[in-house]
Design a protein that fits this description.
CATH topology of the largest domain: Transposase Inhibitor Protein From Tn5, Chain A, domain 1
Distance between the termini: 42 Å
CATH architecture of the largest domain: Alpha-Beta Complex
Number of strands: 14
Number of domains: 2
CATH class of the largest domain: Alpha Beta
Number of helices: 16
Structural class: alpha+beta
Order of helices and strands: HHHHHEEEEHHEHEEEHEEEEEEHHHHHHH
Largest sheet: 10 strands, mixed
Strand content: 15-25%
Shape: globular
Radius of gyration: 24 Å
Length: about 450
């Protein structure tokens, strides 16, 4: 079903969500009539989540095809509704009896990390294998590793001069996915999970790369990593790493009938190892498999830079969950929640683009003209007054920091970028000011 006449309602709902992303639907919509229209849209059984994002994905594709290199960063996240016992259709997530569903996203980024938008999304319930299922039966049905290839096929043929490269974590090390990339003429950069045999089958991947000479030494910044129960798994630090690289031939797995007869895949491996980790912590170790040739130190550095950019999708997940608060929704059906998550994902993209635009080292952080493309004129006028600068002189960085301060951000010399909690709190505060400012300018209402 096409959205058709609901397109205006969809646009209006998206604008309301963007104005107050961390608020509930009743607060975002304002009136009972608008709220009922939002519920009708999100409850409509004939509207699929991918229809809601169709225009955004088309615009993302058109913009991305103007880039020389497009990184399609893929990742899966759990949307957790364990606290909502009345929601229909949820599946089991995690190891502690949680309930929710999974969302897999292909987020388009520029070669240097600029957020372009969403290229493809899939929603699914975690697979629970039937009792007594054999290996052959499991291999014959759809399983979660197939979502990587499904995303590549969903994007399809890539036109124009740009090169599309899929970037994924260890879960993307799926031979079927790499075959799909080869068939579609997409590139890939994935972190290896399997210590597979390479070449003629006499040598394993890690063994081959450890036997290569160190080509360069780099210092990379790694963020803190926590477990599901918030225990610190890896501290945030600057890691000194050695880098080795070599070409490898990846043969198809012997026990997967779906890849039987496939020719081996020619790839390049880049092995990154932290030589002196802090006491009590495991070393940083990445084994990256790339479709693009790695024949020089510059090529290896490029792979590291591309893989580090992968972290952007984790920030997008935070914007979706902490900023747009999709896991706090009061909708009571899994299909409705997926439609809401699709819409909130586009809002999260816009918020991430604005935040990145204001980064201190960004090329447009101090360019007032850039702000005009991302923020409404009335917002610029209100925020410029709060910042005590002329509207035409307000920069993206000044705009964002003023909003964050309204949400409690102190902005001291050594403070990092504003967090999502401060940003959303300030955004909602200023949205109320903008609304009041607009009312004072509007025509008086009679009777």
């Amino acid at each position: 079903m096409a959205i058709g006449g609901g397109g205006k309602r969809l646009t209006k709902l998206a604008a309301a969500m963007a104005d107050a992303p961390n608020q509930s639907l009743p607060k975002q919509c304002g009136s009972w009539g608008d709220l009922k229209a939002a519920y009708r849209l999100l409850n409509h059984p004939g509207i699929r989540p991918e229809q809601i994002t169709a225009v955004h994905r088309q615009h993302t594709r058109e913009r991305a095809q103007q880039e020389a290199v497009v990184l399609c960063v893929q990742d899966t996240t759990d949307l957790d509704y364990t606290h909502r016992t009345a929601v229909r259709g949820l599946g089991k997530i995690g190891d502690g009896g949680g309930r929710g569903f999974r969302q897999h996203t292909g987020l388009a980024l520029g070669e240097h990390g600029a957020v372009l938008g969403i290229l493809h999304q899939e929603w699914f319930l975690p697979c629970e294998p039937p009792e007594g299922e054999t290996r052959r039966q499991r291999q014959a049905r759809w399983s979660e590793p197939d979502v990587w290839g499904d995303t590549a096929r969903g994007i399809g043929a890539w036109r124009g001069p740009s090169r599309l490269i899929h970037v994924g974590d260890r879960h993307s090390d799926v031979f079927r996915f790499l075959c799909t990339c080869r068939k579609l003429e997409h590139g890939f950069l994935v972190r290896a999970m399997h210590d597979r045999y390479v070449g003629d089958g006499t040598e394993r991947l890690w063994e081959r790369l450890r036997g290569q000479p160190v080509r360069l030494v780099q210092t990379v910044r790694v963020g803190a990593q926590r477990t599901r129960n918030n225990r610190l798994k890896r501290s945030s630090r600057s890691a000194r790493v050695t880098v080795r690289y070599a070409s490898v031939l990846l043969p198809p797995p012997r026990n997967d009938p779906r890849t039987a007869g496939q020719p081996p895949i020619q790839a390049w491996a880049v092995y990154v190892l932290e030589e002196d980790p802090p006491a009590g912590e495991s070393p940083l170790e990445w084994m990256l498999l790339a479709s693009e040739p790695v024949q020089s130190d510059a090529d290896a550095e490029r792979c590291l830079r591309w893989y580090r950019i992968r972290w952007t999708i984790e920030e997008w997940h935070r914007a979706l969950k902490e900023g747009c608060r999709v896991e706090r929704s009061q909708l009571d059906d899994v299909d409705d929640l997926q439609r809401l998550a699709a819409l909130a994902g586009v809002v999260a993209v816009r918020m991430l683009q604005l935040r990145d635009l204001a980064d201190a080292d960004g090329p447009d952080a101090e360019n007032p003209a850039s702000l005009q493309r991302y923020a409404p004129a009335l917002w610029i006028e209100v925020v410029s007054r709060l910042a005590d600068v002329a509207a035409e002189a307000l920069t993206p960085r000044g705009f964002l920091l003023t909003i964050a301060r309204r949400g409690g951000y102190l902005g001291r010399k050594h403070d990092g970028r504003p967090g999502w909690k401060a940003l959303w709190g300030g955004w909602y505060d200023i949205e109320r000011i903008v609304e009041g400012f607009a009312l004072t300018r509007g025509p008086p209402k009679c009777g």
